[in-house]
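QUALITY CONTROL LOG
STEP: pairwise intake check
CHECKER ROLE: data steward
CRITERIA: each record must contain a sequence immediately followed by its C-alpha cells, with no blank fields

ENTRY 1 OF 2
RESULT FIELD BELOW
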Amino acid sequence: MTKLSELMGMLHIDCEDEREILGICDHSGHVKKDEIYVCWRVLEEKKQSYIKQALAKGAVVLCDKEKPGKDIYVCECVEDIAQALIELYYGDLCKDIFVAGVSGTNGKTSVTSYLSQMLHICGKEVMRIGTGQVTFLDQIIPISNTTPDCFELAQFFHTANMLGLDGVVMEVSSHAIDQNRINFIQYDIIIYTNITQDHLDYHLTKTHYRFTKFKLRRYLKTDGLIIYQKDLKEMRDFAYLYHGASLTIGMRDAHMVLENIQLSDHDAAFIFDHIPYHTHLLGMFNVYNIASVIAAGRRLNIEVSLMQKACEQIKAVAGRMEVLKGKGYHIWIDFAHTPDALLNLLQFAQSVKRRNIITIIGCGGDRDKTKRAFMADIARTYSDIAIFTSDNPRGEEIHEILYDMCTNAGEHVEIFENRSFAIKHAVKCARNSDIIIIAGKGNEDYQMIQHHYYPFSDRDIVKKRLCEEENH
C-alpha cells in the first residue's frame, strides 16, 4: 500500500493526507473510495460532473488543470501522468514475469489463445488479456476492449504478480498503441501476425495504421525478441525500421523454415525448423499461427518434445474456424471480418472442398466503408453461393450497408437483411459435402442495431436449425 502523501510528494505536490491509496482509475463511474481518480485532458464541459461523481464516492481527484480543493490535486509538470502514476504506485510490473504481446490485423486472439494453451500444457500458468475477456487460473473477467485502458491493464498486471503467475500473454491493438495505453509495459516477446487493412475510420490511412503497429517495437525489453512472418510483404518495411533482435518464420529465407505442409479439412501437419508437428487446427493461417507460438516457446526454453505434444492438444478458439457438423456437410463459424482474413479463409475452403461453398457475410456499420465492396467481391468470387446479410449495423441502416456490398454483385448472390434467416436458408440449401461458412462475428453473442445490443449468436442459430433438421 502507498500513502497519498507519499505518492503526491513524488509528483512534487504538497499533501498531508496520510490515507492509504487502494488503486488508480480514470473512469469516474468505476472509481472507488480511497482510490485516485485521474481527470486528465477531459472536455471542460464534462470535467465538473466527473469530479463531483468521483468525490461523492470518496475518491481523490488528480487533474491537469483545475482549482485545488479538498481531495482535489493538480499536477501540471508531468507529460504522461498515467505512466508516472503506475510506475510510482505499482513499481515495475514487468520485472518478475515474462510478457508476450501479439499484434496484427488478424490472428491476435488465436495466437494468444494457442500460446496460453501451450504454456499451460507445458506447466506454466499465465494471464491472457484479449478480445472480450481476461482469463487466468479458473477466472474469466469480461472486458470491453481488445486492450484495456492503462490503469485497468496495470491492475491486471498487478494481479498476475500477486498470484505468482509466470507471465502475461496479451493482444495489443493499434488503438492501444496510439492512445498510449501500454506505456508502462516492457515485452519479452512481441509477435506480429500480419498487418493489412483495418480501422481506417480511426487511422484514416493504411500508412498510419501500419506504422502505429510498428511502434510496438519501442516497448521491447533490452533482451527482448520480435517474431514475425518473413513471407508477408507488409513486414518488409518493418525490417528496415527495426534492427534489434528478431526471429523470422516462413517458407524460405527465414530463421525458422516451414516445410512439407499438409492441410486437410480436419487437421494440419508440417515440419518447422527440421522438426515435425501435427495439429487439429485448420488452414495455412493456423500453421503460421502455431509456428509463431512454437518460436515463442523456443525463446522461453520449452522442450521441443513438450511443444510437439502440446500442438496435438491445442484447441481452436470459439468462433475462430469452429466446425459444426450437419447431415453430411460442415459449418465453419469464423470471426473473419477483414478482406485479408476472409480471403485466407475462403482460399483454404477452396483447397479442401469436395462440393459447394456457401458463404454468409456482412459488414459492420459506422466502420470503414471502403472494405465493404472488397469483402463482397471476395465472398462472391470464392463461393458457389454468397449470402450478404447484417453484421452489427450499429447506427447505419442495414439496407444501406448491403447496397455498398452489392456494388459489383453478380450471379450466385442472395441477400437477407435478417442474419438469422440467412443462416437458416443456408442450412436448408446445404447438401452432402458442402461447406457453409458463417463469417464476421465468430463467438459474439449480440447484434448491435441502432446502437442497441440484442442477444444473437451464430452458433446458437446453427445449433437450433440443426436440431430442427434432426427432428424432421
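ENTRY 2 OF 2
RESULT FIELD BELOW
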Amino acid sequence: MTTPTYRYVFLGLSITSSWGNGHATTYRALLRALASRGHHVLFLERSLSIYDQHRDLPNPPYGTTERYSSIPELRDRFSRAVREADLVIVGSFVPEGATVGAWITEEARGKAAFYDLDTPVTLGRLAHGDHAYLTPALIPRYDLYLSATGGPTLERLERGHGAVRARALYCAADTDVYHPQPTPMRWDLGYLGTYSDDRQAAVERLLLEPARRMRRGRFAVAGAQYPTSLAWPENLTRTEHLPPDEHRIFYNAQRFTLNLTRRAMVESGWSPSARLFEAAACGTPVLSDTWPGIETFFQPGEEILLVRTPEDVLRKLREMKEDKRLTVGQRARQRVFAEHTAMHRAEAFERYTREVLDAGSRARARRDRDGQAAAAQVESQSG
C-alpha cells in the first residue's frame, strides 16, 4: 500500500545545534527519514544565543529549516504553513512552548501533536507547577502526545493528564551516520553526554572510579557544560564538545561505551536515549545502568551489559574475552537494524499520523451524518 505524502511542521528546541542539546540528533534522524519517504517537512526553531554560537548543521540538507526570534515573528511568517500542514508538532523545551502550543492548537486546520523527548522531566515539572512549555490545560488540546518514554507512562498521560492519544516514539539511530568504521582503538571505556546534576553520580561511580582504579586503562568523556571544578583522572581524555559528525569515530575507538540515564528516566523506565542506539549501531559493546524496560530494547547479557558498581565495570574491562566482546557488539547492532533505526521511527510516525487524521475524518463524518439526520427530522416534522 502506498503511503500518503504529508505536510509536517515541527517546532523544536534546535536541529541546527547539538551544543548541550540531545534533541538535535533525534530530530535530524527523524526528519531525514521522513524527507526520504517523500514527506514535506518544515522545522522551526527559536534563535537563541547559545545555539547561534554553536551551529554544527546550520542548514540541514533535508526538508526546510527556518529560525525565528519571537512569537510575533513566528505568527507573522509561518501562520500559513501551520494552517496548511496535515500535522504540526511542538517539541518539549521549546522556548515559551506553552504560548506556542496554545497558538498552534488554535491556528492549525489539520492536527496538532506534542513530541516529548523528556517525558519524565515534563511530568515532574508539571507536578511542581512549572508550565513553561506545557500546561495541564494544553495537554488535552493536542490530538496526539508522542513520548520518547513508553511503558506505564503512556497510560499515566492518558488517564492522569487527559492526553487524547499517548504513543511511544522512541529515539533511534540514523544508520547512514552510525555504523562500524575501522578506527584505532584509543580507549577502554568512553562516555558521551552533556553534564546533568542527576546523572553525575553515575558518571562518578561507573566511569571515574573505575578509571582511578585501572590506572593503565584509557578512558574518555565527551560533552558540554561540565563544571570546571571537576577533577578528572589523569588517564582520562576530556573533550568539551563533540559534534555529531565525530560521534561515530568516537564510538568506534572504544572497546566499550557507557550509557547513563537521568534519574527521572530511570524511575519511569522505558526511556532509551539516542546515544544508546547510536553506539550500538556502531557495533560498540554498551555497558549500561539499569532501568525498568531496558530488556524491551536489548537483551541483557547478550546484546547489552548491565552494570551497577565500579566492580561490575572493572570485571567487564579486565575479564571479558575479545570474541565475547565483539559478539555482544554485533548482536546489539543487529537489534538496532531490526527494530531501532530512524526509518522504523518514521514508519511509526506515519502510522500515528494516519491514526489521528483518520479519527478526525470519522468524527467529521459522524457530525455530517448527525446533521443530516437532524435536518431530515426537522423537515419531517415541518411537513
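INTAKE CHECK: passed for both entries
DESCRIPTIVE NOTE, ENTRY 2: The CA atoms of residues 302 and 324 lie 9 Å apart.
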